[in-house]
Each structure stands twice: as structure tokens, then as C-alpha cells.
């Protein structure tokens, strides 16, 4: 906790340097009886005109093996590098759509609380996802971070089916300037909390990258928390202007 507060006060270059040494650090915050894993120190993601942050809410219920899903073996015939669209200017995101799992959700801007920790979407709005305002805006150069709950005491939440998204699936983020940033999913990976690769997930990027984070693995009833996290990685592959709608 002291380390999280210390990093929150550092300048952007110093935070990025410190983050490299904290790739497995995790904080667990208990909210309303459910624990949310937080993978990286606050203000740790650089991108465009935004600096970065972190936050990791709850994910789909599964078995312990879900949280340690093996990384696919390298193919003997590597696929071509994905087409990357030039980055957009900064604009606040307002809605997330993931057609492959029938998801449409408003986006709530999230900042830092009085204790220097990232805010999380309220449990009273289970179908709302959050955008971390200290990360790049979706479509802007850098790493943009979205977070959301998988369930609450009353049932499934916004990212209940996040682990079912396949590589190549589209992700659409509507923005305040009228444009829609179009992303293509590169991969979805599950990690045990003790091995969460924060430096990889929150790494700065020259192009426009998107991360969607929730929790995964089994639910530990004794500790009232999930045992892992699920991370969706995607890159900007296109843009739809308001005039094209």
C-alpha cells in the first residue's frame, strides 16, 4: 500500500521506471464482499497525452485451471503482423460494444480515491464498465485501460463473458468526438493473481492499444475473492466517423 501511494506521487517517467520492478505486485481491495485485484501501481500506463493507471475487477467464475491457462505454443507458420490503424486524437470514451458476446455498456470515467487507489465501477451499476482516466483514451496512442465487474451478489455483471471472446473479434468504443474506435482482439489471457504481469499489461505503447481487465479463476469463498485475472489485449484497426453512421 505504501508503495502504491509512493508511485502515485512520482512523475510519469519515474513511475514507468518503478513499474518495471513491480510486474508481479498485487493489491486486493474488498468492496461489498467481493475482492478486486489491482495489478499495477496507480499512474503506471503511458500513452499519448495521458499517463496511466491500473485496476482489476472481478471475472467469470471458473476453475483454478482457468486462471493458469497456458500461453498458446508458437506456430510453425507465424501469422502476419496485424494491421494497425494510425492513432486518433484524445477523446473521452462513452460506450463499449463487443458484438461477439452481445455486450453494450456505458463507460464511466474512473480516477483516484482519497487513499491514492484507483476507483472501480460501483456494484450498484453492474452493467457499467470503467475507463481509467489516467490511461490513454481508446484510440489514442498508448495503452488504454477498461475495467469492470464480472458479477455481484445479485448476478452476472458487465464482463461475465469476457473470457469467451476470441482472437480477431471486434471491439468498438464510441467517443465524445463522434468517432468510434474499432479494435481487433489479439488475445485473451488468464493469470493467477500472484503472477499478474503488470509490466506487460500496462506497458506504454507507440500505437493505440486497449486492455480490458476483470478477474478470473476460482472464487475463494473463505477470502471472498477470485484467484486470478482475465486480460483482453486488442489493437486499433480502424475508425468509424459520425458521418459514416
From TrEMBL:
Q: Which UniProt keywords apply?
A: Hydrolase
- Region annotation Disordered: where it falls in the sequence: 64-86
Q: Does Hydrolase show up as a keyword for this record?
A: yes
Q: Which Gene3D superfamilies match?
A: Sortase
Q: Does the keyword Nucleotidyltransferase apply?
A: no
**Database matches in InterPro entries:** Sortase (IPR005754), Sortase_dom-sf (IPR023365), Sortase_F (IPR042001)
Q: What is this protein called?
A: Class F sortase
Identify the species of origin.
Answer: Streptacidiphilus cavernicola
